[in-house]
Amino acid sequence: MIEDFVAFDFETASGKNPCSLGMVEYKNGKKYREFYELINPEVAYFNPFAVQIHGIRYEDVQHEKNFAERWEEMSSFIEGKTLVAHNAKFDNSVLLYSLQRYGIELPQFNSFCTLQRARKLVRLPSYKLSSLANFFEVPQFHHHNALEDAFVCGELFLKLNRLEQELQLQQEHGVEFPSSYLDWIAEKQGQNVQIRRKALASFSQLFGGLRFVISGNFQNFSRTEMQKIITQNGGRVTGSVSGLTNYLVCGTEPGQAKLGKARSTGTRVLSENDFLKILRVL
User: Which pairing describes strands 211-215 and 236-237: parallel, antiparallel, or unpaired?
Assistant: First the structure.
């Protein structure tokens, strides 16, 4: 069971431009340290709907440090860590977009999503973070505060891990294997909940929402294997580079037309080693 990880949450001004970041690091299943800062997104437009949710306005962050200026403070929570977010597809996309925007080298990290894990383990009327916090009895006082949401996400991850572990024990020892935790979950059946007993594999959203193009020849993967890795981690592989492409992964002898298009559209070009670093296999 994963007990060392960092739960994190971005709030954004608009699109993928962050205006605050909260992170809570856990060691041995216990809260170890935390990080919270406002971030100057360096954009003039703040989506009114986003402002209504988190309450952060342009005036609140115009004199704050931008993502690149905050990176030294943030990096120790991210580099080499297991990152956990609720709807990690979004938060990972904000992180990777910001790294790309400021030309910061991609750090190594693993990624897990409490939204996807909850959907696989229990059937509930709602999978919003606040709804799951209420169901699993995680105290929450300031929803949509990045630090508070990161803490709730971390506590939820621990509870989901325990649920997964108990289900695995029952599968190994039989359905009569005693579990006070599963009994506690079962008592909530009146809340229209059903434990999903057949979906226990971990689910990664490391590349959630990101578009990739693959070009050239690779030493460690076939192109089919690389495409499978990307899609299994929530990404999408397309055949040609466009303004929507996030990364062009290049092996030896990549297509020059694709390279040229990547440069003209500002698409980040990754070498095979860069790609391996993201997967933490180097």
Answer: parallel
Question: In whole angstroms, what is the distance from residue 135 CA to residue 95 CA?
Answer: 29
Q: Percent of the chain beyond pLDDT 70?
A: 87
Task: Work out the average pLDDT over 226-251.
Answer: 88
118-165 pLDDT, tens digit each? 998 888 889 999 999 999 999 888 788 999 999 999 999 999 998 888
Q: What does the DSSP 8-state code read for residue 273?
A: H
pTM of the model: 0.71
Q: Which residue range is the domain that position 230 belongs to?
A: 211-279
Choose among 73, 111, 75: nearest CA to 93: 111
Q: Tens of pLDDT along 47-99? A: 999 999 999 999 999 999 999 999 999 999 999 999 999 999 899 999 999 99
Give the other-Cβ count within 10 Å of 215's Cβ: 22
CATH of the domain at 223: 3.40.50.10190
pLDDT at position 87 is 94
DSSP, res 201 = S
Do 62 and 164 share a domain, yes or no? yes
Backbone angles phi, psi at 248, to 5 degrees: -105, 115
Residues 171 and 66 in one domain: yes
Number of separate domains in the chain: 2
73: domain CATH number is: 3.30.420.10
Cβ contacts of 198 within 8 Å, gap of 6 or more: none
Boundary-marking domain end, from 160, 186, 206 = 206
- 157 neighbors 132 (Cβ within 8 angstroms): no
Q: Find out whether 209 and 126 touch, Cβ atoms under 8 Å.
A: no
Q: Residue 258 to residues 232, 249, 262, 274: CA-CA distances in angstroms?
A: 24, 10, 6, 18
